[in-house]
């Protein structure tokens, strides 16, 4: 199964992706995570990506497309994968269409006020777990692995608005792109995590 997860920042793509990947045994490919990993390792790709990420802008298409196509060659992708955060522009989608036919594009949507609230309060762990300050009760470490939580630089409020604008201008047109291809399914991301996952499962079980 080849799945693309669409949706604005804060819609819950990362959280849902971790669950889907585990249950359906799909490789979870998050372009944001790959860029952040490169950033931590201070690679050339990481340095380049940082200059865009810090501004809430997208990393250029050519770099991103090459990185994803390379990643999809790895063995763990042979049984299917879940793309979280790619494609994010029509150019990326078109380049990807030339190599692959996906089974479903799952669009998770939520209203802007909720997205801003979720992102600004989001705390991350390097193991992939995410939390919201409202539920942490002052705790600063990860329940899964015990490491210290942190706030992503681009989750600060001033960058969040920019990212939402970039989403509307550059990524939202993909909803039409995949609707026309007949593979779009939409899920209401304003519900709680369990409900969203139930809806996603119904869609995926209908395909598998
Ligand atoms: P994310 O973790 O998906 O929210 O991505 C964080 C940041 O990484 C984005 O704001 C972009 O700067 C960059 N990024 C992630 N995926 C892509 C992509 N497909 N194309 C361009 N930039 C991306």
Characteristic terms for this protein:
five-stranded parallel sheet; two-stranded antiparallel sheet; globular; alpha/beta; binds adenosine monophosphate; 208 residues; Rossmann fold
* Name of the CATH architecture of the domain at 2-26 and 79-110 and 169-205: 3-Layer(aba) Sandwich
- Mean pLDDT equals 95
- The count of DSSP E runs of length 2 or more, i.e. the number of strands, is 7
Report the principal-axis shape. globular
- Kindly provide the name of the CATH class of the domain at 2-26 and 79-110 and 169-205: Alpha Beta
The CATH topology label of the domain at 2-26 and 79-110 and 169-205 is: Rossmann fold
- Unreliable stretches: none
Write the layout of secondary structure elements.
Blueprint: E1 2-6, H1 13-24, E2 27-30, H2 31-40, H3 44-53, H4 61-71, E3 81-84, H5 90-97, E4 104-109, H6 112-120, E5 122-124, E6 130-132, H7 133-136, H8 157-171, H9 173-180, E7 184-188, H10 193-207
Helix pairs in contact: 1-10, 2-3, 4-5, 6-8
The protein binds adenosine monophosphate.
Adenosine monophosphate binds at residues 9, 31-32, 35, 52-53, 57-59, 64, 85-88, 92, 154, 163.
How does this model look, in words?
The structure is a single chain. This protein has helices at residues 13-24, 31-40, 44-53, 61-71, 90-97, 112-120, 133-136, 157-171, 173-180, 193-207; strands at residues 2-6, 27-30, 81-84, 104-109, 122-124, 130-132, 184-188. Helix content is 49%, strand content 14%. It has a 5-stranded parallel sheet with strand order 2-3-1-4-7, sandwiched between helices. The chain has a two-stranded antiparallel ribbon with strand order 5-6. It is globular. The mean pLDDT is 95. Helix 6 (112-120) crosses helix 8 (157-171). It has a domain at 2-26 and 79-110 and 169-205: P-loop containing nucleotide triphosphate hydrolases (Rossmann fold, 3-Layer(aba) Sandwich), CATH 3.40.50. It has 208 residues and is α/β, with parallel strands linked by helices. A hairpin with a 5-residue loop joins strand 5 (122-124) and strand 6 (130-132). The structure holds adenosine monophosphate (AMP).
């Amino acid at each position: 199964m080849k799945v693309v997860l669409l949706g604005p920042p804060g819609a819950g793509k990362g959280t849902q992706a971790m669950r889907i990947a585990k249950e359906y045994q799909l490789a979870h490919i998050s372009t944001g995570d790959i860029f952040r990993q490169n950033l931590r390792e201070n690679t050339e790709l990481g340095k380049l990506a940082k200059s865009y990420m810090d501004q809430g802008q997208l990393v250029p298409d050519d770099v991103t497309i090459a990185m994803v196509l390379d990643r999809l060659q790895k063995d763990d992708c042979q049984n299917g994968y879940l793309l979280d955060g790619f494609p994010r522009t029509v150019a990326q989608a078109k380049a990807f269409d030339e190599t692959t036919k996906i089974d479903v594009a799952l669009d998770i949507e939520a209203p802007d006020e909720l997205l801003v609230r979720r992102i600004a309060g989001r705390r991350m762990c390097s193991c992939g777990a995410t939390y919201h300050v409202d539920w942490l009760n002052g705790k600063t470490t990860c329940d899964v692995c015990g490491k210290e939580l942190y706030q992503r630089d681009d989750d600060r409020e001033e960058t969040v608005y920019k990212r939402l604008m970039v989403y509307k201008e550059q990524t939202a047109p993909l909803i039409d792109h995949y609707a026309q291809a007949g593979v779009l399914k939409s899920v209401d991301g304003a519900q709680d995590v369990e409900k969203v996952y139930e809806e996603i499962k119904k869609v995926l079980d209908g395909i598998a």
